[in-house]
């Protein structure tokens, strides 16, 4: 926990003396000098760095104090409601209340034919194919197999747990239980409030519902950077929370349709990327939204700051370069170009992917445009070296970390087409991070003050010869 040093009341301070904090120690700052004495006491580069450290320490202490105060208010509000599960109207409370119901379907020739088409069965159709085609809350073969194994699906009132049971005869009655929910952590509400309280100053870094329709069961929720969208099957440890794990505390169950076991994401964002993610809570809506993604009818926009210039402000073009041997297409628009002491220039781009390949935008920027995204991985900077040299006629400068090292790529918009449950479609935008504008502004300011990077990679001020 960060604690602020005790402040001395202004009435008890000597005239003209203020208190400061550098490196965790209190010190006195002398009053400003005027006249000839001021000229001989101008700060050197070392004292300027010390003053900068003092200002940074003060900002960090203020941010920590604000976050702790917000966390205390959130916890107090939660305790007044009787804890995370006490409020009857909270989404978490609604998900925790299990509402099991039974659904019945009579096997007909239409159901068998639907199963045959859905799973491309030319000859033999098995029981789990029929179950997946008959019940919306069991949309896949795997979900149907697991339900049969648990005994949640009965055939004429009896369990069928075999692995390769043939389709039941026409007229058989299938009964399936639905409405069960996955186990929820008891402290999920507190974890959510703690995360948001510690990031209260940055909207893009918080969990936030941007739009929702609880009636039919869909929502758009902001995913912060630094967290996986959902668990990775092969390499992810279940001890770590994912974006999907927080959703029951944010999005309520649907009022209509077949309720999912928990809120589910319909697409992914990279670990280092923040932005809007489409979430569904009803099985019927989930099928419609996932079909729209598969048919490439969902529009997405990203913002990125890249190294170098790829065109003038307002230029628009398409990048059609395969990624991992698969077709990949991205629409690019140049929003702003700013001079940069290190790379010569940096550019803010609007990126609209037409396809959804793995790391498509990062690969297109680095390998196709020769303009890697600021703070991207060293491997992508290495891949950008050759196209950079072809474009600029010189070697790509070494990779330098800007700010805290966060990737300068953010999803800012998602557009859903008209579909069942979403009349007229929906376009949802997220807050564009302020750090994009700040980076371009700082870079432009440093350039106009005379800072440049020499051949040895040293950043020098050409006006006074100082280097850093």
TrEMBL record:
Q: Which domain of life is it from?
A: Eukaryota
- Annotated Pseudouridine synthase RsuA/RluA-like domain ranges read 219-366
- InterPro entries with a match to the protein in the record: PsdUridine_synth_cat_dom_sf, PsdUridine_synth_RsuA/RluA, RluA_PseudoU_synthase
Biological process (GO) annotations held by this record are: enzyme-directed rRNA pseudouridine synthesis
Q: Which protein family is it in?
A: Belongs to the pseudouridine synthase RluA family.
Q: Name one Pfam family in it.
A: PseudoU_synth_2
Q: What are the recorded GO MF terms, alphabetically?
A: pseudouridine synthase activity; RNA binding
Q: Which residues form a coiled coil?
A: none
In terms of Gene3D superfamilies, this protein maps to: Pseudouridine synthase
Per the UniProt record, the source organism is: Alexandrium monilatum
This protein is called Pseudouridine synthase RsuA/RluA-like domain-containing protein
